[in-house]
Amino acid sequence: MGDEPIMATNDDASECKRGAVQLGYWTDNYIHYFVRHIEKKAPEINRGYFARVKGVDNFIQKFINRAGSNAQIVNLGAGFDTLYWRLKDEGVVISGYVELDFPTVTSKKCYMIKRHKPLLDRIYEQDGEVRFSSTDLHSGNFHCLGVDLRNIQQLKEKLHQAEIKFDKPTLFIAECVLVYIENNWVNRMLQWISTTFSTGLFINYEMCNINDTFGDIMLGNLRARGCTLAGIAQCKNLETQKNRFMENGFMGAKAWDMVQVYHSIEPSERNRIEKIEFLDEQELLIQLFQHYCICIGWLGNDFADFEIEI
Ligand SMILES: C[S@@+](CC[C@H](N)C(=O)[O-])C[C@H]1O[C@@H](n2cnc3c(N)ncnc32)[C@H](O)[C@@H]1O
């Protein structure tokens, strides 16, 4: 089986995000440029995406507040993520932003950026010249680059082309990505990151607690779509999620399931989104939340005190 079903998970994530944005779960002024199709999803799916986006954004904000304008972001398996543009809207200035994904995905993203002036204008504004190849985009501080993350040599070359500096505080984001990559490749990548960057944070959002009936059904659904879950062993529980950072040279790691993450969101914000759609199946939402987590691993001591409180 090739990598196409893995790349297709990006279409699914982007469609779900667009659907939830359309209903008002959170604001994203750019996702509609990347996704035309909206399919109505169940309320628990929308709430799940809300918690995912809020939870990941929380650590991104904390990282940027601490690291300041020296911050660099490397978004691994970024798909059609709109974070770069959302940060621009907030007036955030950082030193470098790199998105990496399979060349098939980045070439589609580059095409959308070229086609939609508001996306391109945001890059021009700060970054001046924008250079495109069929799969890559380079500008002053935004880069969208095609790479197979299993190929460390290619990864190094791409980060070099993007002028990422190893001594600047660097945030790595992997949102539902590592589960598709064999553990030995993920380990190699984490080892390279921990031995190369002096200070930084890695945010990983993905499955956990998979060894029960609900987990079996969830994984069965993904496999039925042809997705090989090559990295599933590390998703066994929160401990295995943390261990992979500890075993690959990170200074420390913490992990929370999405029940904890959801309850850390301000009550007013939770009340607001809970009114958007009536949720019949509370139990199903809790089960879904129990099977996903956010894990952070840090390098150096600058980010060791981060917690989920939003
Ligand atoms: C579920 S999507 C998530 C996209 C984005 N992170 C988000 O949360 O919206 C997984 C992404 O990881 C990418 N991916 C998985 N394995 C990869 C690999 N070996 N190299 C590059 N990208 C990969 C896929 O192409 C896809 O875009």
Automatic annotation (TrEMBL):
It catalyses: [phosphatase 2A protein]-C-terminal L-leucine + S-adenosyl-L-methionine = [phosphatase 2A protein]-C-terminal L-leucine methyl ester + S-adenosyl-L-homocysteine. The keyword S-adenosyl-L-methionine applies. Keywords: Methyltransferase, S-adenosyl-L-methionine, Transferase. Coiled coil: none annotated. The keyword Transferase applies. One of its GO terms (biological process) is regulation of signal transduction. Its EC number is 2.1.1.233. S-adenosyl-L-methionine binds at residues 52, 77, 148-149, 175. GO terms for molecular function: protein C-terminal leucine carboxyl O-methyltransferase activity. Methylates the carboxyl group of the C-terminal leucine residue of protein phosphatase 2A catalytic subunits to form alpha-leucine ester residues. Belongs to the methyltransferase superfamily. LCMT family. PANTHER family: LEUCINE CARBOXYL METHYLTRANSFERASE (PTHR13600), LEUCINE CARBOXYL METHYLTRANSFERASE 1 (PTHR13600:SF33). This is Leucine carboxyl methyltransferase 1. It comes from Hypothenemus hampei (Coffee berry borer).
